Amino acid sequence: MEILKNTNLSSREESARAAAVIRWTLQQAQRCGCSGVQLARDLLVLGVPRAHAAAFAEAADYTREAYVENAREKAFIVNKLTDITTASGPDGTIDVVKVTLNSEEVFSGEQRITDLLVDKSMLKTLLEELKAARKKLEEINTEVNDSQNL
Questions:
Q1: Which of 47, 102, 103, 118 could form a disulfide with 83 if both were Cys (CB 3.0 to 4.6 A apart)?
Q2: Of 45, 89, 39, 46, the residue nearest 64 (C-alpha)
Q3: Keyword Coiled coil on this protein (predicted)?
Q4: Cβ(80)–Cβ(46) below 8 Å
């Protein structure tokens, strides 16, 4: 409610739009692992009033734990990873890299593209985790092949 304080939303439609923007902004902050402090800084650079930026920061920090728990429960599943590319983050972002994962749904053959915005400081960790996942999958594949040869 602090974010909408001192605003003049005269219609239900304007209120719904404002709520959608708030929800989207908080989701993007959570997806990028952006702290409340960093979110507030970014919003201030964009000209958002200090009180609103502070309210966004508080909301981001308050909802982080629930977001992380939800992400763990509904983990990203890749059936067949076909390509990974990186590019600079969108205009206006600082120290962010866009990582694009191209995958194929094994049963339907449907192609999927997932874009992730990753803080540059977290890229090394992401790469290490992807390498560990690949190694584990190769071990499982070897075990399956060995059991089929018996």
A1: 102
A2: 39
A3: yes
A4: no
